[in-house]
Specification:
The structure holds 2 protein chains of 2 kinds. Chain A contains 7 helices and no strands. Chain A is mainly α. The longest helix of chain A is centred in the first third of the chain and has 26 residues. In chain A, 27% of the residues are buried. By secondary structure, chain B is mainly α. Classes of the chains: A mainly alpha, B mainly alpha.
Protein backbone atom coordinates (compact mmCIF):
# COMPACT_ATOMS: atom_id res chain seq x y z
CA UNK A 1 0.00 0.00 0.00
CA UNK A 2 2.79 2.36 1.02
CA UNK A 3 4.75 1.52 -2.13
CA UNK A 4 1.71 2.09 -4.36
CA UNK A 5 1.19 5.47 -2.72
CA UNK A 6 4.82 6.42 -3.27
CA UNK A 7 4.69 5.33 -6.90
CA UNK A 8 1.44 7.18 -7.55
CA UNK A 9 2.71 10.34 -5.86
CA UNK A 10 5.93 10.13 -7.86
CA UNK A 11 4.03 9.82 -11.10
CA UNK A 12 1.83 12.81 -10.25
CA UNK A 13 4.84 14.90 -9.16
CA UNK A 14 6.71 14.03 -12.34
CA UNK A 15 3.72 14.92 -14.50
CA UNK A 16 3.33 18.32 -12.79
CA UNK A 17 7.06 19.06 -13.02
CA UNK A 18 7.24 17.99 -16.67
CA UNK A 19 4.16 20.12 -17.40
CA UNK A 20 5.83 23.11 -15.76
CA UNK A 21 8.97 22.64 -17.88
CA UNK A 22 6.83 22.29 -21.00
CA UNK A 23 5.01 25.50 -20.11
CA UNK A 24 8.36 27.28 -19.53
CA UNK A 25 9.53 26.17 -22.97
CA UNK A 26 6.38 27.31 -24.73
CA UNK A 27 5.62 30.52 -22.79
CA UNK A 28 9.26 31.66 -22.49
CA UNK A 29 8.87 33.81 -19.36
CA UNK A 30 11.71 36.32 -19.23
CA UNK A 31 11.62 37.21 -15.57
CA UNK A 32 10.85 35.42 -12.32
CA UNK A 33 7.73 37.62 -12.00
CA UNK A 34 6.48 36.43 -15.39
CA UNK A 35 7.13 32.80 -14.47
CA UNK A 36 5.38 33.09 -11.11
CA UNK A 37 2.52 35.11 -12.64
CA UNK A 38 2.11 32.60 -15.44
CA UNK A 39 1.85 29.71 -13.02
CA UNK A 40 -0.60 31.57 -10.76
CA UNK A 41 -2.65 32.63 -13.80
CA UNK A 42 -2.89 29.01 -14.90
CA UNK A 43 -4.58 28.17 -11.58
CA UNK A 44 -6.70 31.34 -11.66
CA UNK A 45 -4.86 33.04 -8.80
CA UNK A 46 -3.35 35.96 -10.72
CA UNK A 47 -4.67 39.51 -10.44
CA UNK A 48 -3.31 42.92 -11.37
CA UNK A 49 -2.31 45.43 -8.72
CA UNK A 50 -5.34 47.73 -8.70
CA UNK A 51 -3.51 50.71 -7.16
CA UNK A 52 -0.74 50.64 -9.77
CA UNK A 53 -3.33 50.21 -12.53
CA UNK A 54 -5.24 53.29 -11.33
CA UNK A 55 -1.96 55.24 -11.17
CA UNK A 56 -1.24 54.18 -14.74
CA UNK A 57 -4.69 55.27 -15.86
CA UNK A 58 -4.21 58.74 -14.32
CA UNK A 59 -0.83 59.12 -16.04
CA UNK A 60 -2.33 57.87 -19.30
CA UNK A 61 -5.14 60.44 -19.22
CA UNK A 62 -2.60 63.19 -18.49
CA UNK A 63 -0.60 62.18 -21.59
CA UNK A 64 2.32 61.06 -19.41
CA UNK A 65 2.83 57.90 -21.39
CA UNK A 66 6.24 56.78 -20.14
CA UNK A 67 5.07 57.08 -16.55
CA UNK A 68 1.82 55.34 -17.46
CA UNK A 69 3.67 52.39 -18.95
CA UNK A 70 5.86 52.09 -15.86
CA UNK A 71 2.77 51.99 -13.65
CA UNK A 72 0.98 49.51 -15.91
CA UNK A 73 4.07 47.29 -15.94
CA UNK A 74 4.05 47.37 -12.15
CA UNK A 75 0.36 46.51 -12.14
CA UNK A 76 0.83 43.52 -14.45
CA UNK A 77 4.38 42.24 -13.83
CA UNK A 78 3.64 38.82 -15.32
CA UNK A 79 2.21 40.34 -18.54
CA UNK A 80 -0.95 38.27 -18.19
CA UNK A 81 -3.73 40.88 -18.14
CA UNK A 82 -5.26 41.76 -21.52
CA UNK A 83 -6.79 45.07 -20.40
CA UNK A 84 -3.52 46.38 -18.96
CA UNK A 85 -1.67 45.35 -22.09
CA UNK A 86 -4.33 47.14 -24.16
CA UNK A 87 -3.65 50.38 -22.29
CA UNK A 88 0.10 49.95 -22.75
CA UNK A 89 -0.42 49.50 -26.49
CA UNK A 90 -2.73 52.52 -26.52
CA UNK A 91 -0.05 54.59 -24.78
CA UNK A 92 2.34 53.74 -27.62
CA UNK A 93 -0.31 54.86 -30.13
CA UNK A 94 -0.95 58.17 -28.42
CA UNK A 95 2.70 58.90 -27.75
CA UNK A 96 3.66 58.11 -31.32
CA UNK A 97 0.84 60.12 -32.87
CA UNK A 98 1.78 63.48 -34.38
CA UNK A 99 -0.37 65.61 -36.63
CA UNK A 100 2.27 65.51 -39.37
CA UNK A 101 3.58 61.98 -39.00
CA UNK A 102 3.64 58.85 -36.82
CA UNK A 103 6.59 57.55 -34.80
CA UNK A 104 7.36 54.19 -36.37
CA UNK A 105 9.42 52.87 -33.46
CA UNK A 106 6.64 53.50 -30.93
CA UNK A 107 4.00 52.13 -33.29
CA UNK A 108 6.01 48.95 -33.77
CA UNK A 109 6.16 48.47 -30.01
CA UNK A 110 2.44 49.14 -29.91
CA UNK A 111 1.70 46.42 -32.46
CA UNK A 112 3.72 43.90 -30.42
CA UNK A 113 1.83 44.78 -27.24
CA UNK A 114 -1.63 44.86 -28.83
CA UNK A 115 -0.94 41.44 -30.37
CA UNK A 116 -0.08 40.21 -26.89
CA UNK A 117 -3.29 41.74 -25.51
CA UNK A 118 -5.35 40.00 -28.19
CA UNK A 119 -3.61 36.71 -27.46
CA UNK A 120 -4.39 37.06 -23.75
CA UNK A 121 -8.06 38.00 -24.26
CA UNK A 122 -10.57 35.12 -24.16
CA UNK A 123 -11.30 34.18 -27.75
CA UNK A 124 -9.07 37.02 -28.93
CA UNK A 125 -11.89 39.54 -28.46
CA UNK A 126 -10.98 42.52 -26.31
CA UNK A 127 -13.31 45.47 -25.69
CA UNK A 128 -12.39 48.09 -23.09
CA UNK A 129 -15.25 50.21 -21.82
CA UNK A 130 -13.58 53.61 -21.36
CA UNK A 131 -15.20 56.84 -22.57
CA UNK A 132 -11.79 58.49 -22.71
CA UNK A 133 -10.71 56.25 -25.58
CA UNK A 134 -11.44 56.84 -29.26
CA UNK A 135 -10.95 53.15 -29.98
CA UNK A 136 -12.36 50.65 -27.57
CA UNK A 137 -11.50 47.38 -29.25
CA UNK A 138 -8.06 45.85 -29.64
CA UNK A 139 -8.83 45.17 -33.31
CA UNK A 140 -9.36 48.89 -34.02
CA UNK A 141 -6.20 49.78 -32.15
CA UNK A 142 -4.18 47.18 -34.02
CA UNK A 143 -5.52 48.39 -37.39
CA UNK A 144 -4.69 52.00 -36.51
CA UNK A 145 -1.16 51.11 -35.39
CA UNK A 146 -0.51 49.03 -38.50
CA UNK A 147 -1.91 51.78 -40.75
CA UNK A 148 0.52 54.20 -39.13
CA UNK A 149 3.40 51.95 -40.09
CA UNK A 150 2.51 51.68 -43.79
CA UNK A 151 3.46 54.24 -46.41
CA UNK A 152 0.71 55.20 -48.85
CA UNK A 153 -0.30 58.08 -51.08
CA UNK A 154 -2.92 59.31 -48.64
CA UNK A 155 -0.11 60.08 -46.17
CA UNK A 156 0.67 63.16 -48.28
CA UNK A 157 -2.90 64.46 -48.26
CA UNK A 158 -2.83 67.88 -46.53
CA UNK A 159 -6.33 67.23 -45.15
CA UNK A 160 -4.74 64.58 -42.98
CA UNK A 161 -3.43 67.36 -40.76
CA UNK A 162 -7.03 67.97 -39.72
CA UNK A 163 -7.36 64.46 -38.27
CA UNK A 164 -7.54 64.18 -34.53
CA UNK A 165 -5.94 61.69 -32.19
CA UNK A 166 -8.26 58.94 -31.07
CA UNK B 1 16.00 -0.23 -6.13
CA UNK B 2 13.55 1.39 -3.75
CA UNK B 3 10.22 2.73 -4.98
CA UNK B 4 11.10 6.17 -3.61
CA UNK B 5 14.26 6.38 -5.70
CA UNK B 6 12.57 5.05 -8.84
CA UNK B 7 9.30 6.96 -8.59
CA UNK B 8 10.37 10.27 -7.12
CA UNK B 9 14.11 10.87 -6.77
CA UNK B 10 15.39 9.88 -10.20
CA UNK B 11 12.62 11.53 -12.32
CA UNK B 12 12.88 14.73 -10.30
CA UNK B 13 16.67 14.77 -10.54
CA UNK B 14 16.58 14.33 -14.32
CA UNK B 15 13.75 16.84 -14.78
CA UNK B 16 15.75 19.32 -12.70
CA UNK B 17 18.67 18.71 -15.04
CA UNK B 18 16.38 19.39 -18.02
CA UNK B 19 15.14 22.65 -16.47
CA UNK B 20 18.54 23.90 -15.33
CA UNK B 21 20.21 23.00 -18.63
CA UNK B 22 17.53 24.83 -20.61
CA UNK B 23 17.77 28.09 -18.66
CA UNK B 24 19.92 30.91 -20.02
CA UNK B 25 20.06 33.51 -17.24
CA UNK B 26 20.58 37.17 -18.07
CA UNK B 27 18.74 40.46 -18.26
CA UNK B 28 16.11 38.52 -20.17
CA UNK B 29 15.96 34.87 -19.23
CA UNK B 30 15.44 32.47 -22.12
CA UNK B 31 14.46 28.83 -21.97
CA UNK B 32 16.08 26.75 -24.70
CA UNK B 33 14.61 23.40 -25.77
CA UNK B 34 16.93 20.56 -26.82
CA UNK B 35 18.10 20.94 -30.41
CA UNK B 36 17.33 18.25 -32.98
CA UNK B 37 21.02 17.34 -33.19
CA UNK B 38 21.23 16.93 -29.46
CA UNK B 39 18.18 14.65 -29.48
CA UNK B 40 20.04 12.32 -31.84
CA UNK B 41 23.26 12.58 -29.81
CA UNK B 42 21.21 12.05 -26.66
CA UNK B 43 19.84 8.85 -28.15
CA UNK B 44 23.41 7.64 -28.78
CA UNK B 45 24.41 8.61 -25.24
CA UNK B 46 21.38 6.76 -23.88
CA UNK B 47 22.31 3.70 -25.94
CA UNK B 48 25.78 3.90 -24.42
CA UNK B 49 24.32 4.03 -20.92
CA UNK B 50 22.33 0.87 -21.65
CA UNK B 51 25.17 -0.93 -23.36
CA UNK B 52 27.66 -0.19 -20.61
CA UNK B 53 25.26 -1.46 -17.98
CA UNK B 54 24.91 1.96 -16.36
CA UNK B 55 21.18 1.54 -16.79
CA UNK B 56 19.30 -1.71 -17.03
CA UNK B 57 15.91 -1.21 -18.74
CA UNK B 58 14.81 -4.70 -17.58
CA UNK B 59 14.89 -3.54 -13.98
CA UNK B 60 12.59 -0.66 -14.90
CA UNK B 61 10.27 -2.23 -17.46
CA UNK B 62 9.34 -5.87 -17.07
CA UNK B 63 6.15 -7.95 -17.41
CA UNK B 64 6.59 -9.17 -13.81
CA UNK B 65 6.28 -5.65 -12.45
CA UNK B 66 2.97 -3.91 -11.82
CA UNK B 67 1.61 -1.41 -14.35
CA UNK B 68 2.29 1.48 -11.98
CA UNK B 69 5.87 0.32 -11.40
CA UNK B 70 6.38 0.01 -15.16
CA UNK B 71 5.02 3.54 -15.60
CA UNK B 72 7.55 4.77 -13.03
CA UNK B 73 10.27 2.88 -14.88
CA UNK B 74 9.24 4.41 -18.18
CA UNK B 75 9.33 7.85 -16.55
CA UNK B 76 12.90 7.24 -15.40
CA UNK B 77 13.96 6.15 -18.89
CA UNK B 78 12.26 9.08 -20.61
CA UNK B 79 13.55 11.71 -18.20
CA UNK B 80 17.08 10.26 -18.38
CA UNK B 81 16.95 10.46 -22.17
CA UNK B 82 15.65 14.05 -22.27
CA UNK B 83 18.20 15.09 -19.63
CA UNK B 84 20.99 13.56 -21.75
CA UNK B 85 19.81 15.47 -24.83
CA UNK B 86 19.44 18.72 -22.89
CA UNK B 87 22.92 18.32 -21.39
CA UNK B 88 24.38 18.16 -24.89
CA UNK B 89 22.43 21.27 -25.95
CA UNK B 90 23.81 23.08 -22.92
CA UNK B 91 27.43 22.05 -23.43
CA UNK B 92 27.84 22.45 -27.18
CA UNK B 93 28.70 26.05 -28.23
CA UNK B 94 25.80 27.83 -29.90
CA UNK B 95 27.27 28.96 -33.20
CA UNK B 96 30.22 29.27 -35.53
CA UNK B 97 33.36 27.17 -35.81
CA UNK B 98 33.40 26.12 -32.11
CA UNK B 99 29.94 24.56 -32.52
CA UNK B 100 31.08 22.63 -35.58
CA UNK B 101 34.26 21.40 -33.86
CA UNK B 102 32.39 20.49 -30.68
CA UNK B 103 29.81 18.47 -32.63
CA UNK B 104 32.51 16.61 -34.59
CA UNK B 105 34.48 15.81 -31.42
CA UNK B 106 31.36 14.81 -29.49
CA UNK B 107 30.06 12.50 -32.20
CA UNK B 108 33.54 10.98 -32.56
CA UNK B 109 33.80 10.37 -28.81
CA UNK B 110 30.34 8.82 -28.62
CA UNK B 111 30.99 6.60 -31.65
CA UNK B 112 34.35 5.57 -30.20
CA UNK B 113 32.72 4.70 -26.89
CA UNK B 114 30.06 2.66 -28.69
CA UNK B 115 32.77 0.77 -30.56
CA UNK B 116 34.88 0.18 -27.43
CA UNK B 117 31.98 -0.94 -25.29
CA UNK B 118 33.14 0.46 -21.94
CA UNK B 119 31.77 -0.87 -18.67
CA UNK B 120 29.71 1.27 -16.31
CA UNK B 121 32.53 2.81 -14.28
CA UNK B 122 34.65 3.51 -17.38
CA UNK B 123 31.70 5.20 -19.07
CA UNK B 124 30.97 7.35 -16.03
CA UNK B 125 34.61 8.41 -15.87
CA UNK B 126 34.59 9.09 -19.62
CA UNK B 127 31.41 11.14 -19.37
CA UNK B 128 32.89 13.18 -16.54
CA UNK B 129 35.97 13.97 -18.62
CA UNK B 130 33.96 14.74 -21.80
CA UNK B 131 31.47 16.97 -20.03
CA UNK B 132 34.27 18.64 -18.07
CA UNK B 133 36.20 19.39 -21.25
CA UNK B 134 33.10 20.71 -23.01
CA UNK B 135 32.29 22.85 -19.99
CA UNK B 136 35.81 24.30 -19.91
CA UNK B 137 35.69 25.02 -23.65
CA UNK B 138 32.32 26.77 -23.63
CA UNK B 139 32.13 28.48 -20.26
CA UNK B 140 35.80 29.32 -19.69
CA UNK B 141 37.74 29.51 -22.97
CA UNK B 142 35.04 30.75 -25.36
CA UNK B 143 33.39 32.91 -22.70
CA UNK B 144 36.73 34.64 -22.08
CA UNK B 145 37.35 35.13 -25.80
CA UNK B 146 33.82 36.48 -26.35
CA UNK B 147 33.53 38.75 -23.33
CA UNK B 148 34.26 42.46 -23.86
CA UNK B 149 37.96 43.18 -23.33
CA UNK B 150 38.83 45.72 -20.65
CA UNK B 151 42.17 47.30 -21.62
CA UNK B 152 43.07 48.89 -24.96
CA UNK B 153 45.70 46.23 -25.65
CA UNK B 154 43.23 43.46 -24.87
CA UNK B 155 40.61 45.12 -27.10
CA UNK B 156 43.13 45.41 -29.94
CA UNK B 157 44.10 41.73 -29.56
CA UNK B 158 40.45 40.72 -29.48
CA UNK B 159 39.74 42.74 -32.64
CA UNK B 160 42.73 41.14 -34.32
CA UNK B 161 41.56 37.67 -33.26
CA UNK B 162 38.05 38.35 -34.56
CA UNK B 163 39.51 39.62 -37.84
CA UNK B 164 41.71 36.56 -38.29
CA UNK B 165 38.87 34.17 -37.51
CA UNK B 166 36.33 36.23 -39.49
CA UNK B 167 34.23 36.47 -36.35
CA UNK B 168 33.50 32.78 -36.52
CA UNK B 169 34.77 31.98 -33.02
CA UNK B 170 33.17 34.57 -30.76
CA UNK B 171 29.98 33.51 -29.05
CA UNK B 172 27.17 35.10 -27.10
CA UNK B 173 28.70 36.21 -23.81
CA UNK B 174 27.14 34.03 -21.11
CA UNK B 175 25.85 35.56 -17.89
CA UNK B 176 28.06 34.93 -14.86
CA UNK B 177 25.44 32.66 -13.31
CA UNK B 178 25.22 30.54 -16.45
CA UNK B 179 28.58 28.84 -15.91
CA UNK B 180 27.83 28.03 -12.28
CA UNK B 181 24.40 26.72 -13.23
CA UNK B 182 25.96 24.55 -15.96
CA UNK B 183 28.52 23.14 -13.54
CA UNK B 184 25.81 22.28 -11.02
CA UNK B 185 23.76 20.69 -13.81
CA UNK B 186 26.65 18.47 -14.92
CA UNK B 187 27.25 17.29 -11.35
CA UNK B 188 23.53 16.61 -10.83
CA UNK B 189 23.29 14.68 -14.11
CA UNK B 190 26.29 12.51 -13.26
CA UNK B 191 24.88 11.81 -9.79
CA UNK B 192 21.56 10.88 -11.40
CA UNK B 193 23.29 8.53 -13.85
CA UNK B 194 25.29 6.96 -11.00
CA UNK B 195 22.04 6.28 -9.14
CA UNK B 196 20.32 4.62 -12.12
CA UNK B 197 19.57 0.92 -11.68
CA UNK B 198 22.64 -0.71 -13.17
CA UNK B 199 22.78 -4.00 -15.01
CA UNK B 200 23.71 -7.14 -13.08
CA UNK B 201 26.39 -8.07 -15.57
CA UNK B 202 29.81 -6.79 -16.62
CA UNK B 203 31.51 -6.64 -19.99
CA UNK B 204 34.12 -9.46 -20.31
CA UNK B 205 37.29 -8.91 -22.30
CA UNK B 206 38.62 -12.00 -24.12
CA UNK B 207 42.38 -12.14 -24.57
CA UNK B 208 44.00 -13.16 -27.86
CA UNK B 209 44.92 -16.80 -28.64
CA UNK B 210 42.99 -20.03 -28.57
CA UNK B 211 44.07 -20.91 -25.01
CA UNK B 212 43.44 -17.53 -23.55
CA UNK B 213 42.06 -17.60 -20.11
CA UNK B 214 38.73 -15.98 -19.91
CA UNK B 215 38.00 -14.43 -16.63
CA UNK B 216 34.32 -13.98 -16.13
CA UNK B 217 33.04 -11.88 -13.35
CA UNK B 218 29.69 -13.00 -12.21
CA UNK B 219 27.65 -10.63 -10.21
CA UNK B 220 25.30 -12.18 -7.80
CA UNK B 221 22.69 -10.45 -5.77
CA UNK B 222 23.21 -10.73 -2.06
CA UNK B 223 20.42 -11.21 0.39
CA UNK B 224 20.33 -7.44 1.12
CA UNK B 225 19.94 -6.70 -2.58
CA UNK B 226 23.50 -5.36 -2.92
CA UNK B 227 25.53 -6.85 -5.75
CA UNK B 228 28.44 -9.03 -4.66
CA UNK B 229 31.04 -10.20 -7.10
CA UNK B 230 32.67 -13.60 -7.39
CA UNK B 231 35.30 -14.49 -9.93
CA UNK B 232 35.04 -17.64 -11.99
CA UNK B 233 37.91 -18.84 -14.11
CA UNK B 234 37.14 -20.80 -17.25
CA UNK B 235 39.32 -22.06 -20.06
CA UNK B 236 38.42 -20.94 -23.54
Amino acid sequence: MHETLTRGAGLALTAVYAGFIGWMLSAQPQTIAQAVGGVSASVGAYSVDAQSFDDGLVFFRNDQFVEARAAFARADPAVRDARTQFYIAYSYYRQGWYRSHRDDALYREGVIVVDRAIALAPGGRLIVDDDNLGMRSADELKAELEAGLTRQLSDFNPLRWLESRK
Amino acid sequence: MSALREAIVLPLVFLSVVLAASLRPGAQVTVVPPSLGSLVAGMVLFALLVRSGAIDPHRLLHPDRSALANLNGLTVLLTAFVASAQMITMLVPESGVPALIAWVVLISLLSQALAMGPDRSSLLRGLMVTFGAAFALKFIVLATLSSPAEGRMARALQLLFEGVTLGGVTQRTPHTAEGYLAFLTIVTYLIGVAFLPSAAWHMARIGPGAHAEVRLRRVERGSAGHPTESDTDTKA
